[in-house]
Amino acid sequence: MADSITRQQLSQIAKFSTLHTRPEGHKYAYGTAGFRLLGSLLDSVVFRVGLLAALRSRKLDGETIGVMLTASHNPPDDNGVKLIDPQGEMLEASWETYATKFANAETDDELTKEYLAVAEALKINLDSPSNVIFARDTRASGPALVAALKDGLQAAAADYADYRILTTPQLHYIVKCINTRKTAAPYGDPSEQGYFDKLATAFKIVTKGKAKPPVVTVDAANGVGGPKIRELARCIGSDYLDINVVKDEIDAVDRLNFQCGADFVKTQQKLPVGLEPAPFELYASLDGDADRIVFYYVDEANKFHLLDGDKIASLAAMFIRDLIAVSGVDLQVGVVQTAYANGSSSKYLTDILKVPITVTPTGVKHLHHAAQLFDVGVYFEANGHGTVLFSNSAMKTLESFEAQNPGQQDAVTTLLSLAALINQTVGDALSDLLLVIAILSHKAWGPNEWNLTYTDLPNRLVRVVVKDRTAFKTEDAERRLVEPKGLQAHIDALVKKYKSGRSFVRASGTEDAVRVYAEAATRLEADELAVKVSDSLKGL
Ligand code: NG1
Ligand code: ZN
Question: Does the structural domain 194-305 have CATH classification 3.40.120.10?
Answer without folding.
Answer: yes
